[in-house]
User: What shape does this take?
Amino acid sequence: MKRLVAMLAMISVTGAMLLGGCGKAQSAATGKQDDGKSKAEETRLNLWLPPFADKDGDLTDAEFWSQAVAPFEKENHCKISIEIIPWDSYEEKYLTGMSSPDGPDVGYMYMEMFYDYIHNDQLVDMDSFFTEKEKENYVYYNLGHIQGGQFALPFVVGNPRVLIANMDLLKKAGVDQVPSTWEELEETGLKIKKSEPEVAPLMQDWGNPHYGSLNEIFWPFFWSAGGEITDEKGNLTIDSEAGKKAVAYLTKLREEGVIPESATSNDDTVNAFKTGEAAMIIIGTANALATKNIHWDFTPLLKGPLGDKSKTFVACDCLVLPKRSKNVDLSMKLIKYLTSAKVMSDFHERLYHQPPITMDDPYKSEDVFASLYTDYADNMQALPVFSNATGMYDALYKNLQSVMLGQMKGDEALSETTRYYNENLK
Assistant: This one.
């Protein structure tokens, strides 16, 4: 766990759902506090979160969080309005919401979102709200120190992307183990294509509208070829020999049919894997654990040209306190409550399997991926924080989609994205 800290130094519910209620109010008649029990005077906090629940699961995000915040509402005589924002419109919602009267009092951000909100002075530096004892209890507290301040409190840390395979389909193709190198992946894919022509050897979701898919379908290949997204000064460095090598490899897999033509319209690799339509996918460990009806296995690290130094994506997503919050102190109290061992243990157990974020969390994962955080911590890579990161990722994703459709060359995708970023976004 300590190695991971050192290395990392990252459904749709329409409208707000009113789930309960914060702060003491004053009596309209006397101007004195009435213990906050007047419904008209209760403080209302907006909590914005993304979806975590499995689409096929019995528990929804709205159900879980309504149950989770109920004790806080009762204790603090307040109401929490929870909004679950779909991933494909997440950033757009924040762009308008951060300056809106109905925006978040407590929000959730991933690394590529931070730079602009910090640069525009829209987030509170939370460091002064925590005692030294509290800081020591948070396993990843220092990862929230971004651009010179504690603008984030790590909330979801982990979920590394790994290659998983349907072992029944692999065995039919004469393969006994999950590929662990680029060469083995290509060889296995070609064998599956021959033995099971109706099955996608390696499914990718190039039809997904959101660039977040790059975390599975591109960045692990890019990093494992030796690529770096930016240099130490924040300059974009994707147009490199390593970047070209990664794009060339994926293009080859697409041309050979290892990545099928249907990948260009697919927006849900997990469903394709669950239904047996895909033999292999790269997926977050939390999502893999939710795949119950398939006999699958995984490789802890898909090795590219870097060999044992290859990398894969890992999340470091955080809770934030916007300066626009109606009640900063109460919002900070809510953040501490949401990240408490009581809430997080339940969250990890019932909704989203992740390693604990506090030392006092009793939840102990017994899943097959537990050893990744010790044995492969140095192979995990989070996205960097830099100016207009989301715009760059979106531009790159669209250009790579064109490559997979055969409408653009790989080298052109990297150079055009770099040109666009430098001229319009940097």
About this structure: Residues 28 and 41 are 8 Å apart (CA to CA). The first helix runs from residue 2 to 8. The chain has 17 helices and 14 strands.
